[in-house]
Structure prediction request, 425 residues.
Amino acid sequence: MAAIKPHLAQEGETTELQSRYWECSGSGSALNGLGDDGETCPAPEEIAQEAHAELMNVAWIRQALIEKMSDRKIWIQYDVDGTPSIAISKPVTGPAWNPSAGSRATTILGWTTKMGAPSFSLPAGAPSMGGACPGAIAGQSITPREGREGPARRVLKVLKEYPGDNEKADGVHITKTVCEFCYAEGGQYATSGVQNAQIMRYAWAKRAVEKKADGRFVRQGHQDNVSEFYSVMLDAIERADYVPHEEPAHFTTQRFFRIHDSGDFFSSEYFSEWKKITLYFHHKVGGEGLTFNEDGSIATEGTGHPHPVWFWAPSRVWATKMVTLIAESNEVYGDNFAIRPSAYHINQYGPFIPGWAAPSTVYEHKHKPEGQGKAFDWDCRAYAVEKGPSCRGAKSNPKGKAKGAVGCRECWLNPTSAVNYTLHL
Prediction:
């Protein structure tokens, strides 16, 4: 699940038209201020057309790559140090209008500089454009209007069901949805090189969650009925490069992982595998000795992982039928797995769903006073760091255990705190 482009994008990725739109839209209602309050404001139709064109460009690149990849074999290979990667039988080059050299292999994990953490990245966006975000269907113009109507009704139902001022929500407005301006479908993410790696991961992940691990993938001390995805991801996360970016001292031995800097939980089976992975790295019940029943529940607890990992996943699958599955899964041993429901629109509450962590939002500077203390408790400080945006360099929440120390992990460690990511232009 990616965030809106002006928030997490690199400098210069926001177009002039989009910058003008966000600068002057938002007068009046947070949902109905659609940019018609001044001569210099682009019309909603104009901004929607540009956003739609960007999404179409990514969809075309993906389609070209997927077609070329359809006859390739994909498998897992291990480096000499035990780190797994994804290999393909023949390199896939990008289309003529967005070429890439092609590669025979790609890493399973990436590194997010802003968050200072390893991550797992899939194609963002609605399934209709080859994306792994089922919750984005109602919020992207690339999905035909008739295909958005049912999901949009579900979004509205969830927003009205849970606390906050979401009773003001009156539908899904494409020109204000976060997904329509997703940073993971523009800029560097839109290049065929990045898309190729994400598509390879997605193709492997869909197969691996359904496939039992063979002898190569069964970790010592574990039962042999786990999936290939579970077993390979344990190796990848265990061997991720945490050391060069050492955490501030007040985090002691904690390690942090971002699930989906791009993409989302694309199926209930896929989510269930991630739940088991987070349990393996749990500080109390994980590690050696942990086994699972066929339904994914714990059969025997482990002795506790000696180097635990805390996971954070922002998600919009609350707009799908997976909302209940996630709520129930975190009732027990969910303290190292913060799944935050992400707001659907700019300047709107995220749903406060029992069993989930508190939501995340995206507010413009001028609208933050309306949401502070209601829609969100903590305003992300990563962009207030002088030497480049970084969670590690940002001040932590003074209400937390770190008491305002340098180094913030609010999104991971404080599931009761709703977080805002200010809309940066």
